[in-house]
């Protein structure tokens, strides 16, 4: 599933907004809405909620990716970050894993999540899908749907539209019953049906066109009190709005599909999701802020951060090769901690845009292009005397000065300044006023693991296995997504004369696998592990093996690492039945949702197996008759639960870490001290799964190194909600071998906070407010300052670094330059030590001794690094 990477998808999720209310055509003929005023409509400028145009700052947060105990804190932090809308998908395959059997418990409790968002005063955008992508296993489709006869996904055909409608209806009715739609007084202001469909519509031809119309009508038919959105619909009917997804919608988006449609940006990527084998992903706060500011400067009124909080892919929920940690680079990191300065810089941006709300929504835009790189955009309404301006320098290297209404404004390279009154710069996208922070993983004192015990899986022989077939069965169809694992076993009889005579020459077992990984055994002895990657899932496994005269057993443990997010299939012009259908004779192309078409392997698992270097040459054993078995014995016994773990006899682990493959490990640990989030460091292990008190923490894969030579993900999040104070059962299934004694339980904090403020930074955007048409300062005097604030009511226990001058580096790695004020540290300590937060004005008088200043001519920077902790800590 090559390049299923959002980053390649420069363009546009187009949203198709079918509004039952905006076009005036369907005025609530249905249901209880009769006579009631529409709560959500739109015009050419923005969504209109309760009669008022709105700027919408939206963030994606997916309820299954965190336990409900974390939701209040995450929603609250999103709100403090300036969001007024939370966007979530609805995940069909977790809600209906078996046809007709529904699950809305725990972190699958959609209604609880929606209610909680409403209780925090935020709105909801509900992306029902049912196809959702989202780096989620099978893009949200349940496995059983694949086995419905004659079904073609995401196209107009009886079986598909029947099941899609049935499910959509269930979700809509649940939301309706709880009165969660906006016109019922609830928080849900819009809902989405389908997802980026234009990417695949062409392949389905007429059936695709018919499907789009059907889906829109079906959705509106189910509920018509709020706008329905649908993505990627360039030929959207009149009652839909096309919107943008991507990194730079301010410049790439051609605009909505009509003058009465607002400009909405529904998927704004805060970084890049990771697959195993990737180096870390980055997207700077400055770059993000630039593109959002640009979008609002170019008439945008809704931006969604994808993701605002990514969370964790627990269990087997991630799609192929996607890491267990999801969008850790988002403004809230995997542990729900504020990723600074991203979180704070965007909070400040939202404040600056809100200060400009009146002119933005009721003013008239005008653009003044000064040269290739410099541009002034104003939104003005002379009658009510409101005016806001965006000053843009698009040059990536050189700063510039813009003259605007008689005043010179300095603009750093590639930056936008926001002036809510056309006079005062309250924000610049490149000058980060918000603090920085660094994340620390600290070994827990209380959380030490007890003695480890081991139980080893049996390596089966062909005779032990139930499902027989001449050639190896396809892996996806075999597991039906009930396990990552399936055994493939065969046996071969060799005569002594078949085998090499010299002891230094061994035959070689070669397995051509279509993905994703495998461990191979000969006569019960482990011979090695092989795997593909997200871009090339297929791989060739080759290892020397020892064979004996007589019967030899070849046992292959084949694995998937998440199913692909299924897209679609077409053959020439005829849509094929289903993606990766094993019986399908069509030439199947899996077209990714980006522009390219990729020849995708339909299958996973071993396909061609040979033994090379026999006296008679190469022996092809692909058709040798195979026995199959899905899942590990330990999974069936649920060894990861307290009850299941009693079913086998556990033994001591070997002291030298040589326990070998297919090992179940078990131990107990106490909850770590304090309230900080908890992680488990798995660097001493290789690949497998983790459970705590019977709950899955997800897959780990620390033996898959990135190009930087490090595991893509070393630490795995254990939610505090999964823990008891004492004796938490920790079970690990390790596929190839590791050293469990070195596994470390850790606490996670962002106790190192930093601030880097120059003399030309704008003051905190909090220094101003707008009431009606009046924009004014609310502090006197308004000054540039360094502002530091410890998380979770902690206080600054130490100032680790302070410099007023030309220090350089990054949070955690600062170093002094040539001009440092000898006073700076002392001043910072005076202002901040022992405090939860502090603000130090950037003043030479205060921070330096001007008579002794050795470099008075340079612009100075105040650089601070402080360590936060609990106040009681200081007393010990
Ligand atoms: C609309 O206004 C009413 C009354 O103030 C309020 O209860 C409701 O929550 C608002 N709806 C939305 C979607 O904000
Ligand atoms: C913004 O809106 C104005 C007036 O509605 C229009 O003239 C202008 O072209 C729009 N700008 C962009 C970038 O779409
Ligand atoms: C700004 O610069 C980038 C390249 O750095 C370019 O792709 C983009 O089109 C420019 N935008 C404008 C409005 O000039
Ligand atoms: C969308 O997200 C990208 C990166 O995540 C960001 O640069 C851009 O500004 C965002 N745009 C909007 C409108 O949110």
Secondary structure blueprint with pairings:
Elements: E1 40-42, E2 47-49, E3 52-53, E4 56-61, H1 71-80, E5 85-89, H2 92-95, H3 110-119, E6 123-129, H4 143-146, H5 158-177, E7 188-193, H6 198-222, E8 228-229, E9 244-246, H7 249-252, E10 263-269, H8 285-297, E11 300-309, H9 342-355, H10 357-362, E12 364-369, E13 374-381, E14 386-393, E15 400-404, E16 407-411, E17 415-419, E18 427-428, E19 436-443, E20 453-456, E21 467-469, H11 475-479, E22 485-494, E23 508-513, E24 517-522, E25 525-531, E26 539-544, E27 550-559, E28 569-571, E29 574-575, E30 589-591, E31 597-598, E32 606-614, E33 617-620, E34 626-630, H12 633-636, H13 642-645, E35 651-652, E36 663-669, E37 678-681, E38 687-692, E39 695-701, E40 715-718, E41 728-734, E42 744-758, E43 768-771, E44 774-777, E45 785-789, E46 795-805, H14 824-832, E47 837-841, H15 844-847, E48 861-869
Helix pairs in contact: 5-6, 8-9
Bound molecules: 2-acetamido-2-deoxy-beta-D-glucopyranose (NAG) (4 copies).
Main location: secreted
GO biological process, one term: carbohydrate metabolic process
EC number: 3.2.1.23
The gyration radius over C-alpha positions equals 30 Å
Strand order, main sheet: write it out. 8-7-6-5-4-11-10-9
Low-pLDDT runs: 1-35, 567-601
CATH architecture tag of the largest domain:
Alpha-Beta Barrel
The largest sheet is:
8 strands, parallel
Provide the helix percentage: 10-25%
CATH superfamily of the largest domain: Glycosidases
* Hetero compounds: 2-acetamido-2-deoxy-beta-D-glucopyranose
Distance between the termini: 55 Å
The overall pLDDT, averaged over residues, is 86
Number of strands: 48
Gross morphology is globular
